[in-house]
Amino acid sequence: MSPPNRSFHDANDRMQDPTTTSYIRGALYGLAAVCIWAVFIVVSRLGVSTSLTPWDVAAIRFCVAGLLLLPYLLRKRLALDRVGWTGLTAIAIGCGAPMVLLVNAGLLFAPAAHGGALFPGVMPLMVAMLAAALLKETFMPQKVGGLILIVLGAIGIVWASGGTIGTRQNIGHLLFLCAGLPWAGYTMC
Question: Would you list the domain boundaries of the chain?
Answer without folding.
Answer: 6-188
